[in-house]
Amino acid sequence: MYPYYEPDWSVLPPENNRRFNPAFNMASIRQVINEAVERGIMRMPTPTRLRDLIRQIRAARTAAEERAVVNKECAYIRSTFREEDSVWRCRNIAKLLYIHMLGYPAHFGQLECLKLTASPRFTDKRIGYLGAMLLLDERQDVHLLITNCLKNDLNSPTQFVVGLALCTLGAIASPEMARDLASEVERLMKSPNAYIRKKAALCAFRVIRRVPELMEIFLPATRSLLSEKNHGILITGVTLITEMCENSPDTLSHFKKIVPNLVRILKNLILAGYSPEHDVSGVSDPFLQVKILRLLRILGHNDPDASEAMNDILAQVATNTETSKNVGNTILYETVLSIMDIRSEGGLRVLAINILGRFLLNSDKNIRYVALNTLLRTVHADTSAVQRHRTTILECLKDPDVSIRRRAMELSFALINGQNIRSMTKELLVFLEKADSEFKAQCSSGMVLSAERFAPSTRWHLDTQLNILVAAGNYVRDDVVSSTIQLISSSPSTEQAYISAKMWEALQTPNNCEDKQPLLQVAVWAIGEYGDLFMYGEKNDGTKLIRNIDLCFEVNSSCFFFYLLDIPRPAEKDIVEMYQKLLWAPQGSTSSKQYTLISLAKLSTRLQAAQDEIKQIIDAFGSHLNVDLQQRGVEFSQLFKTHNHLRAALLEKMPPMQLNRMSAQNGAGVTSPDENGGGAGDLIENGLDEENVVTIAEGSNALLELLGGTSSQEISIPNAPKAVSVPLPITGGVSNNKDLMDLLGDLDLSAANSNTPAVESSTNGNVLSMPPIVSPTVGMNLDISMSNSSLITGFMDDLSMQSDNQSTTPKLTALEKNGLSVVLAPRKASGCLHVIMTATNSSLNTVEQFLFQAAVPKSFTLQMLSPSGSTLLPGGTITQEMRVSQSSKAVLRMRLRISYTTDGNPVLEQTEVSGFPEDAFD
Predict the structure, then answer these.
(1) DSSP 3-state assignment of 301?
(2) I need a labelling partner for 347 at 20 to 30 A (CA). Which of 271, 482, 573, 915 fits?
């Protein structure tokens, strides 16, 4: 007790009277107050606390009120920063960081953060380092000033200060800072303090990711982390080793020997009893288990010995893990990925796929989506095991979640084979009819591709294509229309008559013309080409009819009733009236009317009567508002007048068409370029290619104009034909009808030698440019039989023969990264260089939105054809052709830009390729 009430307390010595201070009088008090006023402490109000600022911002009703609060507070914080020694710096930085998190500029607080990091107080350092991690990056000069402060704090005796420095270094380390402080981090990885070792290992992980060449510094200390019993150090050590193995093949080989240690740690986790410190929903440290499984997957990839060592433990994890909680499902998911990625046994793979099958029955949508996504990545590894869960996968097509339906649809296409094509197609047709518009295009193209690969019969194939067109409506892609036309043209005559009748029946359904334009295009094409078979051909006898009942009824019951009830064939008048309705329907597209008008012109040679009605309809289009349809109407009208004798020859049937070589791995319903340079989706008649071609000289203007080209185009026809049959497109552009008619008028078709075999030319869309509004399937044929006449002699004088001097050069690898390989195969051709790009996906991930772009120097001209697809399934390929021509002498270099999306992450790669043959353009 102080002697407050001693009567003589004022005379006590100072050491006995602590309350007494002779210097503490009114004068000294007045001086202190004056100094405070001069420093401004009394003038500056006490700063707002962080919680009060948060309340004010949240109370703002509009964005303008919020900006006003933030601007006012930022102005106050700026004013306090001008003080040399502000006692409120820590509080102001904390408020500034909150303002930064809201998206407002806070860069003016960078130097104040550095001042706080240099403070001896831990609370100041904590706010200062947090501000440095949020406000600083290596692009700013202030970033360099923190290096020395970090180095000092890494040697601090306080473990929490060292931890702050390590966290900050891992977050904002530039390559230069990482090289300067890597030795300090490596020293701390050997610290006896477990807290510091864990933080140092995480910092080393960030440093290695930033500067991979520093990996060797941390190798000795990293190996010792796996012998720790502390789970925090174990999980950081496994994370660090995983990063090293992913970045360096040499390091991966170095750590192959730790597989037994990892197996031992994982086994102890599985067999360990209850541990409150590490238990999560009854599972012992699931985070560490997941990390170890990922590292085992990397170490066992393409390594039989390492895979053999981990097979047993993977089987134990798959069978002993609790599946009632999401924690157990997470471990099982990582186990499945590890099993499918290493050289595991067949039984173990079946077990992994069965686990995914159980996931499909889970009520959690996320788990079902993960299961479908994983099955899609692994279906090529063991298709038979996945087939056992086909029923469950098809049930997912009815799931209300759009993501699950999309993955189930993609997986269903991967499961289709020759044995289940009928049942799978039936289920997919039901899905296609009820699917959202975003699914119809992809689903219809995938069904077309599957039908082309596994169709059991032509009749079934035709019925399936028709049902696809009916179910998908206007969402059908162009490749479905072209493939259906190709299929019909290459079918036997009995099937052509059958499908024409089916198409006519489909046109009778209300709204089919408005909502199903692709179906309309195919239907009028088939009726126009095979109207004679449809109207006057013989029907199948009763025996054949009964054999086809089950087949037709399985796909479409209307096929059964059509033949069983023997519906009478339509009259010619009914067909003409239907065509007139389609041509003048306001809902019909211009492309559909082009198909219909050409089909009607062809029907004039197929039908025995109704010639006058057809002529009147075509004449009416001579004054149509659409220029293209008007030109077609005018040109077709000429075939009914002065050139009526040529109409039968010009409008004869198209020859059977064959698609280019199909690639099963490419996108749905998309063709890949053939080795002779055919473009994606081009139709080649009679299978003729570009070899042994004859180039027409520039003087042959009449024939060029007849074919719709110019004098600068190259047109490929077979070498030295006796007679020529050239498809004649009725183009939408302006043509010289006088030259065309003069050429036709000089031909004497009656003088043709019937004993001379006709050789038909290949009209490949990649060689002869066709108008974009007209496809080869809707063109007309000009069959001109010429014997030893003077006309053929004149043509032969203008033909310049050239041999196929194409040669093959070594392939050039443009990209080899993350399982994606892009290879360029240059091939010399006459006057240009053909380059075939082939992209191959050897990973287990699906590559989507694949886009290949190329650029060449100004001395060259580059033409890129359409790619064969945009989606790369695991093991799939995409091809694309490029044609390079030279305008001046230079060395060919090609700059490439490759973009794609994998697992939802966009990837962009850029590279440059050289080494093309120097004599490619000689």
Answers:
(1) coil
(2) 271
Q: 548-557, long-range: CB within 8 Å, 24+ apart, which pairs?
A: 548/459, 551/457, 551/459, 551/460, 551/463, 552/459, 552/463, 554/422, 554/426, 555/425, 555/426, 555/429, 555/460, 555/463, 555/464, 555/467, 556/463, 556/466, 556/467
Look at residues 591, 451, 454, 626 and name the one whose alpha carbon lies nearest to residue 520: 591
- CA 408/CA 401 separation, integer angstroms: 11
Q: Which of 608, 601, 607 is nearest to 632 (CA)?
A: 601
DSSP H or E run through 832: strand 832-841
DSSP string of 211-231, one letter each residue: -GGGHHHHHHHHHHHTT---H
Which DSSP symbol is given to 144? G
The backbone torsions φ and ψ at residue 807, rounded to the nearest 5 degrees and listed phi first, read: -135, 155
Task: Answer for the pair 374, 342: CB distance below 8 angstroms, yes or no.
Answer: no
What the block records as the tokens of 863 is: 């033409």
Helices (H), 276-364: 286-300, 304-320, 326-341, 346-360
Host H or E run for residue 183: helix 175-188
Q: Are 852 and 882 in contact (CB under 8 A)?
A: no
Chain segment 781-813, per-residue pLDDT in tens: 333 233 333 333 333 333 333 333 344 467 888
Angle (deg, nearest 10), helices 304-320 and 346-360: 40
CA–CA separation, 95 vs 398, rounded Å? 51
Q: Tokens 């510094």: give the residue.
A: 217
Q: How far apart are CA 95 and CA 48, in angstroms?
A: 9
The CA distance from 600 to 615, in Å, is 9
Contact yes or no for 186/169 (Cβ under 8 A): no
User: Is residue 158 packed enough to be buried (19+ CB in 10 Å), middle (13-18) or exposed (0-12)?
Assistant: exposed
Distance CA 766, CA 671 (A): 14
Closest CA to 493 of 529, 520, 469, 523: 529
> Looking at this protein, which amino acid is placed at residue 472?
A
Threshold 0.70, pTM exceeds: no
3 state DSSP class of 652 = coil
Measured CA to CA, the distance from residue 655 to residue 779 in angstroms comes to 11
Q: What are phi and psi of 271, to 5 degrees?
A: -90, -10
Which segments of 473-589 does DSSP mark as H helices, in order? Answer: 478-489, 493-507, 512-515, 517-529, 531-536, 542-547, 549-555, 557-564, 572-583
Which among 779, 847, 765, 807 is positioned nearest to 601, based on CA atoms?
779
CA–CA dist 883, 231 (Å, integer): 59
User: What's the half-sphere exposure (Cβ side, CA atoms, 13 Å) at 525?
Assistant: 27
**C-beta of residue 431 within 8 angstroms of C-beta of residue 424:** no
What's the 3-state SS for 2-24? CCCCCCCHHHCCCCCCCCCCCCC
Residues 6+ apart with CB under 8 A from 337: 293, 297, 374
pLDDT tens profile 586-633: 888 888 899 999 999 888 888 877 788 888 888 888 888 889 899 998
| Total number of residues shown for the chain | 922
